[in-house]
Design brief:
The chain has 145 residues and is mainly α. The chain has one domain (3-144). It has helices at 3-27, 37-44, 56-76, 86-106, 110-115, 121-144. The chain starts with a helix and ends with a helix.
Length: 145
């Protein structure tokens, strides 16, 4: 595998695994980077009128999914040997890329904003969350190719 692909795989994996770790931290009751659970929920969930973070179980489910997604680049770049046929890795990567790209695009739609319009989430989503999802989606596509 090309050195650039390995570097990209390590970077993408590190970013997604760090996000998984933050979700696990929230599942344990952590509130960083906000001063309260309510303010955190407004910043990272964004549904109108939200007053508390989702359940610990929900946070842990998201953390586990992100951990799996964060491991995929390591398989794609050959850093970790694939324990299944390569076509499965490719199919999974295409699905992951599609989800990230769809989430990134959704953040700029009026339907998304109606459902997730709480501030500061709406601003953070336009400036950080959606662009990050688009970047990750593009990175997964680059690793697929």
């Amino acid at each position: 595998m090309l050195a650039g692909h390995v570097a990209l795989a390590l970077a993408v994996s590190g970013i997604v695994l760090a996000i998984a770790g933050v979700h696990a931290y929230w599942g344990c009751g952590g509130i960083w980077p906000a001063p309260s659970s309510e303010r955190l929920a407004r910043a990272v969930v964004g549904t109108p009128g939200i007053q508390a973070m989702p359940s610990a179980r929900a946070c842990f489910v998201v953390a586990a999914l992100l951990a799996g997604v964060g491991t995929w680049p390591l398989f794609a770049a050959g850093i970790i040997a694939e324990p299944w046929p390569h076509w499965f890795t490719s199919l999974a990567g295409a699905g992951i890329a599609s989800v990230f790209l769809a989430r990134g695009v959704a953040g700029y739609t009026s339907a998304w904003r109606r459902r997730f319009g709480e501030r500061p989430f709406a601003n953070l989503d336009r400036r950080a969350y959606s662009p990050l999802c688009l970047l990750l989606g593009a990175s997964y596509i680059a690793l697929l190719l």
